[in-house]
Amino acid sequence: MSWQFAIARSELRAEGVTGVDIGGVPVALYRLGDEVFATHGICTHALAFLADGYVEDGKIECPLHQGLFDIRTGAALCAPLTEPVRTYAVKIEGDSVYVDLDGAAADVASEAALNSVVPAPSVKRAVIAGAGQASAAAIRALREAGFIGSIDLVGAETHLPYERPPLSKGVLLGTTQHEACARLRPADLTALGVTAHLQTTVVSIDVANRLVALSNGETLAYDELLIATGGRARALDIPGADLPGVMSLRTYEESLALGEALRLAKKVAIVGGGFIGLELASAAVELGCSIVVLEREPELMSRVMPAPLGRAFRSLAETHGVEVRVSTSVEAISQSDGRLSVRTNHGTISADLVVMAVGLEPETALAVQAGCDVQNGVVVDAAGRTSVANIWAAGDCALHHAEVRGRRIRLESWHNAEQQGAAAGRAIAGAAEAGEQAALPWFWTDQFGLNIQVLGIPTSGDAVARTGEDAAKGTIYRTFEPATRRLTGLVAFSLPPAIRVGRAELASGVPFDPALVDAVILSQDENSQEEMMNSLIKMPAASGQAAAEKTYHWPAAGLTRVPDWVYTDESIYKREVEKIFHGHSWNYVALEDEVRNPGDFIRSNVGPTPVVVARAEDGSINVFENRCSHRAAEFCRDLRGSAKEFVCPYHQWSYDLKGNLAGVPFRRGVNGAGGMPKDFKTSEHGLKRLNVTTHRGVVFASYCDDMEQLTDYLGPEVLAEFEATFDGRKPRVLGHYRHSLPGNWKLYHENLKDPYHATLLHTFLVTFGLLVAGNKSLMLADASGRHGVMASAKSDTTNLAADTKREMRAYKEGMSLSDPRFMKFVDEFNSPWSVTMITVWPNLIVQREMNTLGIRQIVPTGPNEFIMKWTMFGFEDDDEEMTRHRLRQGNLMGPAGFLGLEDNEAIKFVQDGMISVPDGEHVIELDPGNDGTSDTLISEAAIRGMYRYWREVMEL
Amino acid sequence: MSLALEIRPHPTDDRDAQIERLLLRAEVDDFNAAYAAALDAQRLVDWSEMFTEDASYVVLSRENHDSGLPVGLIYCEGRPMIFDRAFALEKTAMFAPRYLRHIVSNTQVLGVEPDGAIRARANYVVLQVLFDRPDATLHQVGVYHDVFRREPDGLRLAKRHCVYDNLLVPNALCLPV
After folding, report:
1. How does pLDDT run across A508-536, given as a tens digit for each residue?
2. Which residues make beta-bridge pairs with A87?
3. Do the beta carbons of residue A280 and residue A172 sit within 8 Å?
4. What is the Cα–Cα distance from A775 to A727, expressed in whole angstroms?
5. Residue A409 carries which DSSP code?
6. pLDDT of residue A943
7. Biggest alpha carbon distance in chain A?
């Protein structure tokens, strides 16, 4: 044991997680009530700090993919986790918390057990009938609660307890192995002191003598008996149900066999359209089968879900090619020529394979024999007590302890098995019982590429409200009692954070208001039209085309969805050029330094439109279109230079440095012949000139003649950040990068209004400690929503020791830079931020990444591509070392920058996705209820703010 | 024997001097072939070891180079920074998988400094293949401006400034040139 000081106890977040660094090892400390626990600080699944995670019910939820670890044991509790996280022993002396990096938490428990004075050795004997997940949960809870008697586990299968959800998912597909499903491993038997009797069942209970008889002839005495016998797949009592090729699913072996059969089958009939039936259908589709689902009721899942939700599940299945027949009951199955015929009330279907998925028959015979109260499940209280003393029940064979709208039901789920098993374990061990605040029922189903989570207990009579598109990723359905408007459940389609929010919603008891969540109430009747939230948007077709109008629908969900056409549609792009780049906006065109002297010019762009920026003899800066007013030639071809005038090479029309037409060759013809009309006025044929303004050495232009001042255009907050970077020193250009980017130009704005991606995409930032999710940060949006500033502080530079520690915490162990010079931050700005990225609508980004400074100018070239021109700069008074420092730090940014190249790739991937799978929409949900400034990195509020503005300007 | 400072063909060169010149160019060619092979195989740490401890490695546009502007897409002072580039790209960078082919040609040895440093240049072309596109695209075309130094185990680059002609970089430069 080597105890190392970790933190003062008072610094630990109450009922939460706190990250510390102990000798270079990131450690997460948890305070649960009066106890403190420690685990390794990094998730075993991906690079994420558990200290940024969420603590609930003794579990830590990883911030990245919502994997859950048991804080006390380190056990990985759900997908995607497969590896437990290391636990460490913790001791508390006074206000100091010590951690032993060599000792696991369990060591402490055993040590404590050895050292403490054991109160009178207990001779209690626990027997557990059934070896499923509830049994495993009970065993762990028993030992955690200090139960030191014997535990005998009796199970019919060859396996120790394992999880069943993967059986209809990964195991079937061959992607999940048995090891990954295990809930109790052989090593746990020793560690937890369990005697296992596998391939054995309890055949009878002698309640009077507290004995159980086993199928192998043995007898076990018990003081406490837990019945966790689960259930079996329900069979239909119809002819042919036992034919070969008619299968069902309950065990691991059945899943393997079914997977094999599905690989051989072409046509598969699934009898029963509940969760298991649909998961099987989803897996079978993935394995290339053609599927028909036969459901006896008029809608899928009608026993457990209101009809509109059943309809949503059906439409999801149907979109993936599954044929669903409702109101169809199977009457008989027969076999001829190796094929099966399924006779239904609506005709006969032939199939290679028939899978019965008609529910679960609880295994209650034992409880009945023992005299327990059984009503379609063993009746238990919240602690798992049956009506017979010293007999307990948990899991699929037991009823939920409370009535749900007047009915006792079974909850056949992973979560319920865990909850009921653990509750019974704790109660048997004599620990305090959890009160009525027990977590809401929750389960998930994976179907057709979506992870659908269900919270609460919806019933078939409930009303349903939908936020989002029908059966689409990111959509939330809420169920509620129509009379009281009390929420009963929440179903989230691939949107796990909604479940956390949903817990609060369901617990609050506040009557449900669909308007608050942009929801539409779904009709119970399929054929009636839904209430429409959103009117259709009509736009004239591009000129010259047929008079047909193209219709654009913004999703009913509002700003939390952005449809693909915003990024890919040619007409939308043209409208953007007109309404945005050529509309009411100040567009960046140059740094004054680039046109330092009279005659200096550069080529630039306003939106896609090429312009020339030139300084005239009078010192004024002028911006005009690079298009000859005679025959449209883009006359200025040099990127930069110095000139006295501009001459179009085609016909030698000449313009002065302000864009006025100066000379037209042969204007009066030759010898009185030819030439321009007499009334031709050069003053009427100058180049198209733009409105120009400058601020702190930065030049902007606008097609709009009544623009407000730039300072007003930026607004006070963005102006302050602009002036923090352009702080009065004279900017000096250090060079340019230019690159094309095959993505829509707005994606670049969004990338810089999306602080969420920073630590996720840019592993570099986290690996080398530049930014971690906990750094001080701000995502500022101006009042209009069009501009933004993404700001973060590297960490406290005044406290070097703390700084080093902070960085170490972020290191991926064993990784550091050989030459850390370029990470240095020279604090040259009067600003609390070490990094600010200012997005000035519509075409400018001002980058201040520590000391590397740059302008990025967006030049859109169509909906699917833009050009980015970077102008890297320093200041006039920089010495050579400062210039070199800026250049070295420049390795972070630009098209070859450690961060820059990833942004470019990610944006390309986004456009690729929209082109390859068109007509979808983006989910912009983070930080709900906000569409402005946010002080968390985990927010997309600024993106929504930008689209609020965009829709106004575009009149869409 | 000492090499002539002026290495260009000269009417009065004797045969030995001509052979020395050819051998030196062949050595530089060999170096460049090994350099290209390391990058094509994306053996970036091996690549980083082809530089001297104080090497300058910069990839910059012809636009900046011709204007005397120092900004580079990649700007490394010294082998540790070059190694960091290799290491960070291998360990942290996210980009679509790709194959690259570096083709180096038109090698010229421009001269040998009194301290033995060899000034050279060569043209290069980098072709890039993305896995979901049929075509190899011309990702970069330019000139290496080099200074080699002889170290015990052979030539190393004390300077390689890659000056590229195609100013508009296609999307991103994910791997060194």
Report:
1. 888 888 878 888 888 777 654 443 333 33
2. A39
3. yes
4. 25
5. -
6. 97
7. 132
Q: What are chain A's domains?
A: 3-115 (2.102.10.10), 125-232+362-428 (3.50.50.60), 235-358 (3.50.50.60), 449-522 (3.30.390.30), 594-691 (2.102.10.10), 729-954 (3.90.380.10)
HSE (side-chain half, CA atoms, 13 Å) at B89: 25
Q: Where does the pLDDT of residue A543 fall: very low under 50, low under 70, confident under 90, or very high at 90 and above?
A: very low
Which residues fall within 8 angstroms of residue A519, CB to CB, at 6 or more apart? A465, A466, A467, A476, A478
Mutation target among A640, A736, A865 for the B interface, most CBs of B within 10 A: A736
Interface mutation target, options A770, A819, A873, A888, chain B, most CBs of B under 10 Å: A819
Which of B70, B81, B173 lies closest to A734 in CB terms?
Answer: B70
Both structure tokens of A721: 């950040």
Contact B96 A815 (CB under 8 A): no
Of residues B44, B35, B57, B46, the one with CA closest to residue B124: B35
8 Å CB contact of A819 and B94: no
Helix (H, G, I), strand (E, B) or coil at A341: strand
Q: Decide: helix, strand or coil at residue A272.
A: coil
Chain B CB contacts of A901 under 8 Å are: 93, 95, 172-174
Residue A593 pLDDT > 90, yes or no? yes
Distance in Å, alpha carbon of B94 to nearest chain A alpha carbon: 6
User: Which residues numbered 109-128 in B keep a CB inside 8 Å of some CB on A?
Assistant: none
**Six-digit token string for A624:** 């005009």
Please give the pLDDT value at position A450. Answer: 87
A183 phi/psi in degrees, rounded to 5: -110, -20
Domain map (residue ranges) of chain B: 15-164
- Closest B-chain CA to A741: B171
Distance to chain B for A923, nearest Cα, Å: 22
- Read off the pLDDT band of A434 (50, 70, 90): low
Confidence (pLDDT) at B91: 86
- Write the ipTM: 0.93
Omega within 30 of 0 (cis) for the link into B70: no
Angle at B156 between CA B152 and CA B159, to 5 degrees: 145
E-strand ranges in chain B read: 51-61, 74-77, 98-112, 118-130, 136-151, 154-164, 168-170
- Helix axis angle, A252-264 relative to A275-286, nearest 10°? 50
Does residue A884 surpass a pLDDT of 90? yes
User: β-strands A921-923, A96-100: how paired?
Assistant: unpaired
Contact A815 B91 (CB under 8 A): yes
**Residues of chain B neighbouring A812 (CB-CB closer than 8 A):** 91
Sign of torsion, CA A743 A748 A754 A757? positive
CB contact residues (below 8 A), chain B span 34-53, against chain A: none
By Cβ distance, the residue of B70, B78, B89 closest to A819 is: B78
Helix axes A133-144, A414-428, angle to 10 degrees: 40
Minimum distance, in Å, between the CA of residue A506 and any CA atom of chain B: 40
Helix A275-286 vs helix A307-319: crossing angle, to nearest 10? 10
pLDDT tens, position by position, A123-154: 689 999 999 999 999 998 898 888 888 999 99
CA distance A887 to A894: 12
Which chain B residue is nearest to residue A821, measuring alpha carbons?
B81
Per-residue DSSP letter, A76? B
Position A684 scores a pLDDT of: 94
Inter-chain contact A767–B92, Cβ cutoff 8 Å? yes
Whether the upstream peptide bond of residue A742 has omega within 30° of 0, thus cis, is: no
Contact A901 B85 (CB under 8 A): no
CATH of domain B15-164: 3.10.450.50
Cβ(B51)–Cβ(B57) under 8 Å? yes
The answer, for A883 touching chain B at a CB cutoff of 8 Å, is: yes
